[in-house]
Design goal:
- Helix content is 35%, strand content 29%.
- By secondary structure, the chain is an alpha+beta fold.
- The strands form two sheets. Strands 1-4-6-5 form a four-stranded antiparallel β-sheet, with helices on one face.
C-alpha cells in the first residue's frame, strides 16, 4: 500500500553543501582517520503542491523529523516549512546511508501525520478526478 504512505512527491533536491553559508559556523567533525563536514539540503513538496503545512501540522512535522533524525544519529541544523513544501538542512556522518534516512523520514512522517490529522487525506486525494 505504497499510495497511502507517501505524503511528499519524490521530486526533491539533495546535494552536498560545500560552500560556507552566510551567518553559519563551519564545523568539521573528526573520525579515526578522517576529517569531514557533510551537510545536505533536502526539499520535499506536498503532493499536488496542496497548501496543507500550516499551524499544528507544520509543527508536528518538524517534531517527527527531529525524532527520525535522532534515531539515525543525524543533526538537523535547520528546517522550515512553507504552505506546500519543507526545507531541511542536516549534517551526517559518512557511515550513514542518506537514502535510508530520507526514505524513513518520508514514510514515518506521512504515516504519523495521516493518523493524527485525518483531514489531510481529503485534501490530498483528488476525489473529483
Amino acid at each position: 500500500m505504497i499510495g497511502n504512505t507517501i505524503l511528499f512527491v519524490f521530486d526533491f533536491v539533495l546535494y552536498f553543501s560545500y560552500a560556507i553559508i552566510a551567518n553559519m559556523k563551519y564545523n568539521t567533525n573528526k573520525g579515526n582517520h578522517s576529517v569531514y563536514c557533510l551537510q545536505f539540503h533536502y526539499v520535499a513538496c506536498v503532493k499536488y503542491r496542496r497548501k496543507i503545512l500550516i499551524g499544528k501540522i507544520s509543527e508536528r512535522l518538524k517534531e517527527i523529523n527531529k525524532s527520525v533524525a535522532e534515531h539515525f544519529d543525524i543533526e538537523i541544523i535547520e528546517q522550515e516549512t512553507d504552505k506546500d513544501h519543507i526545507h531541511i538542512l542536516f549534517s551526517s556522518k559518512p557511515q550513514i546511508e542518506i537514502s535510508k534516512f530520507v526514505n524513513s523520514l518520508k514514510s514515518v512522517s506521512a504515516r504519523l501525520l495521516f493518523r493524527e490529522f485525518p483531514e489531510i487525506k481529503k485534501q490530498l486525494w483528488r476525489l473529483d478526478a
